[in-house]
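Hey, I'm writing a tutorial for new members on how sequence and structure tokens pair up, and I'd like a real worked example in the thread rather than a made-up one. If someone can provide the structure for the chain below, I'll link this post from the tutorial.
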Amino acid sequence: MPHTPESIQQNFSVSDTAVNELAAFMGQDENNGKALRLYFAGNGCSGPRLGFALESPNVDEAIYNKRGVTIQADQETMTIIESYGGVSLDFVDDPVYGSGFRADFKNPPEGGCGSSCGSGGCGC
């Protein structure tokens, strides 16, 4: 079942820091007009993991827009995101792991922190 704009808005939380970093990155000539795609990247020790890719927007995928930044996810990924209460996307600058984007499920699976993509492993 396709996701409505309302369900997409309810399931994505994107920090201002993440939007600012994405806007700067997507403003570069080679990235102009592209979207950040979240995708299911398999299961890890903290449950499902999300990956990131920069691609041309796909009208068949769920689209989230905030201040000119486009984030998209396919139906399988949206179903996973919804099953964990949504996802929060942030940009972090960690002295140990460095800087980058981080996606956290709002209601992570039992026994894990629900983090993905640069969370630093299983020990949360």
